[in-house]
From TrEMBL:
SMART domains, per database record: TPR
Bilayer-crossing regions: 321-342
Organism name: Dinothrombium tinctorium
The protein's Enzyme Commission number: 5.2.1.8
Residue windows of the TPR repeats: 209-242, 243-276
Protein name: peptidylprolyl isomerase
UniProt enzyme class: isomerase
UniProt-listed InterPro entries: FKBP4/5/8-like, PPIase_dom_sf, PPIase_FKBP_dom, TPR-like_helical_dom_sf, TPR_rpt
Length: 344
């Protein structure tokens, strides 16, 4: 507690003349308390689920941006459920606090903006109220309906960041979605028996497979091929006939130069979806590359065999020396025998 008080006092000393705290000491993220919260309440930490009321405007405008305004929004701190500036400001708030947060483009929607409401390179002027903060336990302990809901939201958020080509953030969202999409042993038993919540469990597994596929796509974009292969293998563990996972696995193996295995995987995918043009094109490309690889291997083996034959036909220096040594020894022996008989 003393440490947090000292930190708070230090922050208060940094308030500018307008009452704003320069959170990052670079004027790009400012926070001003409009209403004090309950200072006896613990501040949110990474992984906490918080409920906020949010009003968003462009800096210098009085008009609310409806698509980025809402009451009782639930987000997980540090999970990129919202823009980075809000994520950084919330851990500095107490329950019940209302704050004005001014966010430079770098910690908002950057050079892309968020059309149609937020133009590129926009500074955002937000009013944030921290309504509640909840410390979470193990994700798998949540009811399956809640896990399915949160997993879907995080997967969709990953899709949002992926569409903006922010692949690192997108991958983090997909990984967090997977945290909520684990299945308990008893739930797998219910699914196999068709009892209990088997329909919801099947939906959860289907969503988990899709999320692994999306994560593999992110790793492909960032050329993290081993991680991409691990993700598609996880998808295929859940659904061995998943065409998208088979296609991506074949593509990854092709990139890694494993043409033979890649061709087998793509042929298997084509059996399940014979009209899939993307698989047909990739398979044709890899067959051509495999043919070239085999031709190169034949040339290499032929050269190796010719080299072996050449070496076999040419006596080595050691063999020649050995032969001369034996011959010399034979001559010396013969001379010795002749000399013996002459002297007798």
């Amino acid at each position: 507690m003393k440490k947090s008080i000292r930190l708070e006092e230090k922050r208060e000393e940094k308030l500018d003349e307008d009452g704003f705290l320069d959170i990052l000491d670079n004027k790009q993220l400012l926070k001003k308390v409009l209403r004090e919260g309950d200072k006896n309440s613990a501040r949110p930490e990474r992984g906490c689920r918080v409920t906020i009321n949010l009003k968003t405007r462009l800096k210098g405008s009085d008009k609310l941006i409806d698509s980025h305004t809402g009451d009782k929004l639930q987000i997980f701190v540090g999970d990129y459920d919202t823009i980075h500036g809000i994520d950084l400001a919330i851990p500095l708030m107490h329950n019940g606090e209302i704050a004005n947060v001014v966010i430079a483009p770098r910690f908002g929607y950057g050079s892309l903006g968020c059309e149609p409401d937020i133009p590129p390179d926009s500074t955002l002027d937000c009013i944030v109220e921290l309504v509640d903060c909840e410390w979470m336990g193990e994700e798998i302990e949540l009811p399956i309906e809640e896990r399915l809901k949160i997993g879907t939201e995080k997967k969709n958020r990953g899709n949002f960041w992926h569409s903006r080509e922010e692949y690192s953030i997108s991958g983090q969202c997909y990984k967090r979605a997977l945290d909520f999409l684990d299945v308990r042993d008893e739930e797998m038993q219910q699914r196999s028996e068709g009892s209990g919540e088997s329909n919801l469990i099947s939906k959860l597994i289907e969503l988990k497979t899709t999320t692994y596929n999306n994560l593999a796509a992110v790793h492909l974009k960032t050329e993290a091929y081993d991680a991409a292969l691990k993700a598609v293998n996880s998808a295929l563990m859940l659904e061995e006939r998943n065409v998208k996972a088979l296609f991506r696995k074949g593509k990854i193996l092709g990139i890694l130069g494993e043409y033979g295995e890649a061709v087998d995987i793509l042929r298997a995918a084509l059996k399940f979806d014979p009209e899939n043009k993307a698989i047909q094109v990739e398979l044709s490309k890899l067959l051509s590359m495999r043919k070239k690889q085999l031709a190169n291997e034949k040339v290499m083996y032929r050269r190796m065999l010719q080299l072996d034959k050449s070496n076999a036909s040419k006596p080595s220096k050691f063999n020649s020396l050995l032969k001369w040594s034996v011959a010399a020894a034979g001559v010396a022996t013969a001379v010795g025998v002749v000399a013996y008989y002459i002297n007798q």
